[in-house]
Design a protein that fits this description.
- The chain is mainly α.
- The protein has one domain.
- Helix content is 77%, strand content 0%.
- It has seven helices and no strands.
- α1 packs antiparallel against α3.
Amino acid sequence: MPTRKNLLLLEDILNAAEKIIYYTYDVSFEDFMDTNEKMDAVVLNFLIIGEAASRISKEFQIYNRDIPWSHIISFRNCLVHEYFQIDYEMVWKIKESSLPPLVEAVGNIVDDLYSRPDE
């Protein structure tokens, strides 16, 4: 299993998720919708999360089934291919409900990978 490559991709996911959380901290949905920069930044970072997830090895994805890899990748594909009609309510709901557990799960995997002796 190419853990180093997967580890770097997992760190990309965490970094992008942390940016989304930072950009939307103490921001209401209405304020989010009134700020094009925040909307763009959040979507860009969800794209990064989805792209990184799509590059995680299939073996690693199977081993870590608690992460909804296919949903993450599908959401990225939706954002890319439907960019002219993004459903920002859905983006906000995913940020609110799915991002925190993703950060926790990916963070736990990263911690576990760092705690392993060199393989």
